[in-house]
Design a protein that fits this description.
By secondary structure, the chain is mainly alpha-helical. The protein is 79% helix and 4% strand. The chain has one domain (2-148). A hairpin with a 2-residue loop joins strand 1 (51-53) and strand 2 (56-58). Helix 2 (20-45) runs antiparallel to helix 6 (115-148).
């Protein structure tokens, strides 16, 4: 049984993740999804959990923008970097933190419960899932259809 499960994970990895074109979006998704879930949970469970600097509420989109800036800088100056998966995870984290409060930047308000934030987060998540998985599944389905003809 253990061998079957291990073999299934190995096949899934080889088919869906090890492909270089889909590998970086996969790692972005790995950074994005847990960060998005944690940010939403923390805001819902304890809305007063935030950093105050001289009476100014620092929203988590600020951290996201900083993470995106650092990851972008490293990616630009380093070229083909051996730690690209870690940069992709960092990019996903920054993207989740900054776009989780998208509605706040668009409306320039302090209201956390805006539909625009949730809409853009679902859109980004769907985009990553399509890039990571859809094209591989579509290619496989087309091969099966060709064999059936």
């Amino acid at each position: 049984m253990n061998r079957i499960v291990t073999g299934a994970f190995r096949r899934a990895y080889l088919e869906l993740i090890s492909n270089r074109r889909r590998q970086m979006p996969f790692w972005m998704l790995i950074g994005f999804l847990p960060t998005f879930i944690m940010a939403r949970l923390l805001v819902q469970l304890d809305p007063n959990l935030f950093l105050h600097i001289h009476g100014i509420h620092v929203h988590h989109f600020t951290y996201g923008i900083l993470v995106l800036a650092v990851v972008g800088f490293i990616a630009i100056v380093s070229g083909e970097h051996p730690y690209r998966p870690w940069l992709a995870i960092g990019y996903g984290i920054g993207l989740a933190l900054s776009f989780d409060e998208f509605g706040m930047w668009v409306r320039l308000t302090d209201n956390y419960s805006l539909d625009q934030s949730e809409d853009i987060m679902v859109g980004i998540l769907v985009f990553f899932v399509i890039i990571v998985y859809f094209f591989g599944i579509l290619r496989r389905a087309l091969r099966i259809l060709k064999r059936l003809r």
